[in-house]
UniProtKB/TrEMBL annotation:
GO terms for cellular component: outer membrane-bounded periplasmic space. Gene3D superfamilies: Periplasmic binding protein-like II. SUPFAM superfamilies: Periplasmic binding protein-like II. Keywords: Signal. This is Fe(3+) ABC transporter substrate-binding protein.
């Protein structure tokens, strides 16, 4: 991932999840499995002090989970695999 894409991804993640950031944690449902994601999450936590809680699964499983949870879903961000 280029530095520009990396920076833009981090900025977007922070912007989209502003309400969660006030609580000091960000709940991410993710179907991605890339090493670059680990670096992004670690850097984000190091720079902001905000803990990332990640739930992993296949995209369809995560979507079904969010639908079942409805308005009570703890998910702040859903990230699926970019194919």
């Amino acid at each position: 991932m280029t530095l520009i894409k990396y920076t833009l991804t981090a900025a977007l993640m922070a912007t989209v999840a502003m309400p969660a950031l006030a609580e000091g944690q960000l709940n991410i449902y993710s179907s991605r499995h890339y090493d670059t994601d680990e670096r992004l999450y670690t850097d984000f936590t190091d720079q902001t002090g905000i803990t990332i809680n990640r739930i992993e699964g296949k995209a369809d499983e995560l979507l079904a989970r969010m639908q079942a949870e409805g308005a009570n879903s703890p998910a702040d961000v859903l990230i699926t695999v970019d194919t």
